[in-house]
Amino acid sequence: QQGVHHVQSLLHTMPKPTIAAVNGAASGLGADTALACDFIMVSEHANFTWSYIHRGIIPDGGGMYFLPRRVGLPKAKELIFTGRKVDSVEALSMGIADRKSSADQLVSDAQAWAAELSKGSATALALGKTILNQTFELPSEQIFAQGSQAQGICYTSTEHREAVMAFLNKSAAQ
Q1: pTM for the predicted model, two decimal places
Q2: 31 Cβ contact partners less than 8 Å away, ≥ 6 residues apart
């Protein structure tokens, strides 16, 4: 279990966005692993189930942490306590999944989305993701303080200086 927790934590804390592309059954640990990602893209063939209850166990791969953050506590309890299957349409409507694609385009669409999400500053992206991942656990004052510290780091980055120069040069050229 420690190995599973390590992998789930790596997905969750990676300094770049992670996207799960689900094109079939994501059950138990598979569903938990998808939830550990920042975003979930599904095809029409995708479905999710946290059927641990039918085996006399509980979600141990992060489902009890990630699922309530996506769908709310009462809905997470219902899905975990019943172990019922959720199809792609319902997954999108309740917030388990974020986007839908056709089965034949799923991986390429997920890769295109990842490229889009990664166009900005890697420093700002990593810092922003780290702070956002803590917003439900920390009080607002701590999130604001972390944001101020992160902004200070961003202001001193090469990426920021280059972006400002590009903006100024574009404005000067007009």
Answers
A1: 0.89
A2: 48, 49, 50, 63
